[in-house]
């Protein structure tokens, strides 16, 4: 048994769930149609460039969770899963997860997207363990703030280290699948780093270091 770690956005999914949630909110008229769209697109570009200010991003991305009731958010998320996520679940990604599951490996998603968005997606994929940005909840409602270390870039490594200590597990024989150069810090920690449909920066690193490169797209 080994640990099989998966990035989510543009790895097991053919979309970025954080950005897709923003687009969904815009379609529902739940956020400012101009300012939020500009911010949503800008933050995605910053992420892809490796220049994202994670705290500035979270201040904008988590605000709608505080502005709407848990009941409304739950109803929206069901619609979001059907319209924005289900069509982007990659069958070959599910096959990859199934292969690790059949070997008895421990399955874990580590994502920079928040748990509200990704918890149901991980459940849909049959992956019980999830490290994600943790939105703060007080008296049953989201506050619009995050708690703890955001699971982004080096923060993914720190969160994983804490998770391993809590589970009494190690990275012996571990795998990590990711598309993004933002995940280099974590890719360097595992025994089997795998670049999945990698961005140009990650592809260059993977080719230089002899890492496995795969595609889960049709």
Largest sheet strand order: 4-3-2-1-5-6-7
Radius of gyration: 17 Å
Tell me the span between the first and last alpha carbons.
29 Å
Portion of residues in helices?
40-55%
Sheet with the most strands? 7 strands, mixed
- Extract low-pLDDT stretches: none
* Class by SSE composition: alpha/beta
Our estimate of the beta-strand percent is 15-25%
**Tally of helical segments:** 10
Could you say which overall geometry the principal axes of the C-alpha atoms support? globular
- Overall mean confidence score, pLDDT: 97
The helix/strand series, from N terminus to C terminus, equals: EHHHHHHEHEEHEHEHE
Number of strands: 7
Tell me what you see in this structure.
The protein is of the alpha/beta class. The chain has ten helices and seven strands. The chain has a seven-stranded mixed beta sheet. The radius of gyration is 17 Å and the shape is globular. InterPro entries: HAD-like_SerB, HAD-like_sf, HAD_hydro_SerB1, HAD_sf. This is HAD-IB family hydrolase. GO terms for molecular function: hydrolase activity.
Structure at a glance:
The protein is of the alpha/beta class and 218 residues long. The protein has helices at 17-28, 35-49, 54-61, 63-67, 70-85, 91-102, 115-124, 154-167, 184-187, 200-209; strands spanning 3-6, 106-114, 129-138, 141-147, 175-178, 192-196, 212-214.
């Amino acid at each position: 048994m080994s640990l099989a770690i998966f990035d989510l956005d543009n790895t097991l999914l053919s979309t970025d769930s954080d950005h897709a949630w923003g687009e969904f909110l815009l379609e529902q008229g739940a956020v400012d149609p101009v300012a939020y769209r500009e911010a949503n697109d800008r933050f995605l570009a910053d992420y892809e460039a490796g220049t994202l200010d994670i705290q500035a991003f979270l201040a904008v991305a988590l605000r709608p969770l505080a502005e709407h009731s848990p009941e409304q958010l739950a109803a929206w998320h069901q619609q979001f899963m059907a319209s924005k996520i289900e069509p982007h679940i990659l069958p070959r990604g599910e096959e990859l997860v199934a292969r690790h599951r059949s070997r008895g490996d421990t399955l874990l998603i580590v994502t920079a997207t928040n748990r509200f968005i990704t918890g149901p997606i991980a459940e849909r994929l049959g992956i019980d363990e999830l490290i994600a940005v943790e939105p703060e909840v007080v008296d049953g409602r989201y506050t619009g703030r995050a708690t703890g270390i955001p699971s982004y870039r080096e923060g993914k490594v720190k969160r994983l280290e804490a998770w391993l200590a809590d589970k009494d597990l190690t990275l012996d024989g571990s795998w990590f699948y990711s598309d993004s150069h933002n995940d280099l810090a974590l890719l360097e920690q595992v025994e089997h780093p795998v670049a999945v449909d990698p961005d140009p920066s990650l592809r260059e690193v993977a080719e230089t270091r002899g890492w496995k490169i795969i595609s889960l797209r049709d």
